[in-house]
Structure prediction request, 408 residues.
Amino acid sequence: MAFPVTGYSGYPDWLLPQVIGNGIQYEFTRGQYWLGSGLTAESNVLADTRASDAYDFAGTQLFPVNDPVVSAVTGLEGWGAVTNLQLNSDAPSSVAAATLTPNAALAPDGTMTASKLEETATTATHLAFDNAATVNGTTYNRSVFLKAAERTFALVSLSATAHAVGVNLLTGAVISTNGSPANILVEDAGSGWWRISFSAAALSSPNNNQNVYSSLDGVWGNRSYTGEGGKGILVWGNQVTLGTRLEPYVRTTSAAATREPDAITNPNFATHAATFGFASGMAALARVNLTRLSDGAARRIATFGTAADGAYIEFTTSNTFKAVLRKSSADAVTLESGVVGSTGVYDVTATLDPGAYSLTVSGGVTGDTDASAETLPAAIANACYIGHKEDTTLHLNGPLERLALWGV
Prediction:
């Protein structure tokens, strides 16, 4: 299936012809939604009952309680619970051979909440730090947003001096490491900001302090030097989360804070499904950027009906796509693709047409077919959960760029 679709007049070039008058299409990166014969409001086809505010993954926009996180860059972001253990994430409470000025510059989200870390004129390490209640030997992801000011290099550490990464804040290049940092990422956050992250096993000794250093050259061994008053870097969004993966930013003050899990649905799915005859046969197409998905267990792309009677599409731990029809709590039809890469954008189409079930994946990946004469359970048309199971587990933990549903 080629994208974008062209060749017919009066319709957006992103619209799938089979959806016209016959289904629903979500274009998350465009913020546009099609229902039957025309464009529709987001609230008619998308809802979230997340019980907390939430940043998009890039940290550029804060979405209020129950507002789906839809990014023009990544698409719809569905996440499980994320807890930031780092206290005072935007303005660490302690410094050494330095000063910290809160609310000194524009942060990546456009608010005046970034802090300025400036050296003092002493020969020492120049840093800001705060506490995160980590457990000895447990793996955490450490991340922070940094921007060059008078200094163009910085160091970021976990468990005080146990693990660290040095970065060039003009180019994003990693200059040095200390300890055993893994999964190192330096991502361009826009406007000169970089999000630096890595994972490592925490140590109870020396302590639970998580440090950010101003640096002359990004070399860990050179972190002590004679500072110059007024010179430093910009700091925002310190974070420590459980596990290896980089998570969306969660702001904290004097205590750890949690982004509650997303619970994303089509709030009017039963009505729409009846209109388009989904209980007699339906197809779903999802566009997923695997580069942006987190590591971890199976990740649900979309779920229909109930756990006992319905269907779902997911990306599995073995790097395959899978579509399953469930009847009376048993897997009546299971379709699976060949192994795909851990990067790249894929269009995955699952067709649930009684007697002609199929799963196809773009990019030359082989997908299953099944000619079993299995009727669809009526409950398949009762509910649509996007980016998670019906019990809000197995979150996609990443973005979904497109979702299209139509009757077959």
Notes: The first helix runs from residue 42 to 45.
